[in-house]
Amino acid sequence: MKSLEEIQQEPHEQLINRVWIHMYRAHRYLYPKMEKHLRKHGFDSPFWHEALVEIERAGEDGIRSTDLLSRLHMAQFNMSRHLSRMEKKGLIERVPCEKDRRAHFLRITPYGTQANKEIWPHYMEIIQEELNDKLTKEEAFQFFSTLIKLYR
């Protein structure tokens, strides 16, 4: 295995490939832990919290599912499945758009607002457990600012 100093000397293209591979590896390592932890507390997926936050931010009018899709960068079929399950659990409601009957607005329900507030400490707990000791404040900020460059 190469040292970090050796890897740092690799060509840019090779380093970018390493970034890609290790982003996926980190996701495969962390996501199941988050999912398992949240399921113990009634949330089927970490996506649910993120979706509820965005739906709540949209205000009382709600958000079109296509707008939510573009904010969360998720495959449409996958998001539709999650939204249907969230609706069944009473976390959100779909309201037909008056101007375009094919479109729907998503609104968070009072139960969804409460459930999202209750899940946040559990969400934060697993994030802190997995990342807090691994990244300094400066590293966390650098990592954050680098990641958002990838999708903005």
Walkthrough of the structure:
This protein is mostly helical and 152 residues long. The chain has a single domain (14-149), classed as Orthogonal Bundle (Arc Repressor Mutant, subunit A). The chain is built from seven helices and three strands; from the N terminus they run H-H-H-E-H-H-E-E-H-H. The protein has helices at residues 4-8, 12-39, 46-57, 65-72, 76-88, 110-131, 137-149; strands at 63-64, 92-96, 104-108. The protein has a three-stranded antiparallel β-sheet with strand order 1-3-2. The two termini are 34 Å apart.
Tally of domains: 1
DSSP helix fraction: 55-70%
Amino- and carboxy-terminal Cα gap: 34 Å
The CATH architecture name reads Orthogonal Bundle
Element order: H for helix, E for strand: HHHEHHEEHH
**Most strands sheet:** 3 strands, antiparallel
Low-confidence stretches: none
User: Which structural class fits the helix and strand makeup?
Assistant: mainly alpha
**Averaged pLDDT:** 93
Determine Rg (CA atoms, Å).
19 Å
Main sheet strand line-up? 1-3-2
- CATH topology: the name is Arc Repressor Mutant, subunit A
Structural shape: globular
The helix tally amounts to 7
CATH class equals Mainly Alpha
User: Would you identify the CATH H-level superfamily?
Assistant: Winged helix-like DNA-binding domain superfamily/Winged helix DNA-binding domain
Strand content: 5-15%
Number of strands: 3
